[in-house]
Design brief:
Layout (H helix, E strand, L loop, with lengths): L1 H6 L6 E2 L2 H7 L6 E5 L2 E7 L5 E7 L7 H11 L9 E7 L2 E7 L6 H7 L5 H25 L3 E3 L8 E3 L5 E3 L6 E3 L20 H4 L9 H17 L2 H5 L1 H5 L4 H10 L3 H5 L6 H17 L10 H9 L20 H29 L2
Parallel strand pairs: 1-5
Antiparallel strand pairs: 2-3, 3-4, 4-6, 5-6, 7-10, 8-9
Helix pairs in contact: 5-7, 5-12, 5-13, 7-12
Length: about 350
């Protein structure tokens, strides 16, 4: 009865039987990705369409993550959101069938193009990041019910044959009414390195769609760092002892252009695009949600001129004023989290260019 109530939320999506999925994936022969959620396989539908099939691992949550992801994706229709085709829910088997995207994830794309000239595709990176911003703007404002993703990172941005980005993996997403500015969560969601401070401590403010804004900002900075020659060639020397946004903000203040732009061959326009992306990212990762722009504003900033942007304040992990009995614990939590963010950035850069 419980399963019927849950799956009724997924109608009128195509409900595939397990044997059908097994047939069009050739018995799950072609693996295209793996993660903590499970494994993704490539398949071919009878009508010729290529699809990706995400097979979720067994979960103790009675399929809630699965229902959550499919229900969220079923409400979307946007060029920058991955298209859901159907699902399979039989016994312990839970699978999601969605469009297959030829260029894989953003982190795979960066890794594959690591040896390419940065100047050749810096504009391409900008177009990709602008597309991600538009996708998030749609989730926050374009759906009947607002969808907060809670896990924006390079692995969850897929690229089609034209390098059009599509936000994917809605397993941690939460639906809420647009009039609700603050959301209630029982657990911390997301990936270290992209989680907003308010997800760690409510002292920073309530959890809302602004948490996605923070993750987007960290995504942008990571991509800029991943295409910076100095960072790529010496990932640990530059970031092992400093929070990466501090490092990049210091370069802005000191006008360290070679480290900021990572390539002496960039044109003036490409330098301005890069600086604009940095400014937008730094606004997005302000510690307090109230100081971050909404995704509508982020898109406007990305589409507008550099001259129209104010210089963002330095984003810092700072301990807000709290009662004495809480401050030492919170300070310890923030210090640990900051160290994890630094470690995560170094690991990401090393993985992207391994």
């Amino acid at each position: 009865m419980l399963r019927e109530e849950k799956t009724s939320r997924l109608l009128p999506l195509k409900h595939y039987h397990y044997n059908e999925v097994k047939r069009f994936t050739n018995s799950f022969a072609c693996v295209v990705g793996k993660g903590g959620f499970g494994t993704v396989y490539k398949g071919n539908l009878p009508d010729g369409r290529k699809v990706a099939v995400k097979v979720l691992k067994d979960s103790k949550r009675n399929g809630e993550d699965f229902i959550n992801e499919v229900a969220s994706m079923s409400q979307t229709s946007h060029v920058n959101i991955v298209s859901l085709i159907g699902f399979c829910y039989e016994g312990s088997k839970r699978m999601i069938v969605y469009e297959f995207l030829e260029n894989g994830s953003l982190d795979q794309f960066i890794s594959t193009n690591a040896a390419s000239s940065i100047a050749e595709w810096r504009r391409t990176l900008y177009e990709i990041l602008l597309g991600v911003a538009r996708g998030l703007e749609y989730l926050h404002y374009g759906c009947k019910t607002r969808i907060v993703h809670f896990d924006i990172k390079p692995q969850n941005v897929l690229l089609d044959c034209n390098l059009c980005p599509k936000v994917s993996d809605f397993g941690l997403a939460k639906l809420c009414e647009k009039k609700e500015s603050i959301m209630s969560l029982l657990d911390t969601r997301g990936t270290i390195g992209y989680i907003a401070p308010e997800m760690i401590s409510r002292v920073y403010g309530g959890v809302s769609h602004k948490s996605d804004v923070y993750s987007y900002g960290m995504l942008v900075l990571e991509m800029i760092g991943a295409t910076n020659k100095d960072t790529v060639e010496n990932p640990t020397s530059n970031t092992s002892s400093i929070y990466f946004p501090d490092w990049i903000y210091n370069d802005l203040e000191n006008e360290q252009q070679s480290r900021l732009y990572g390539d002496d061959d960039l044109t003036k326009e490409e330098e301005e695009i890069t600086k604009k992306m940095i400014f937008v990212a730094l606004w997005c990762i302000q510690s307090y949600p109230s100081n971050r722009p909404c995704m509508k504003r982020v898109v406007e900033m990305m589409e507008g001129s550099l001259d129209a942007l104010e210089v963002p304040p330095r984003p810092v992990f700072q301990v807000p004023i709290t009662p004495l009995q809480e401050s030492s614990t919170l300070s310890r939590d923030i210090s640990v989290c900051k160290a994890l963010y630094v470690e995560n950035f170094v690991i990401c850069i090393q993985k992207l260019h391994a």
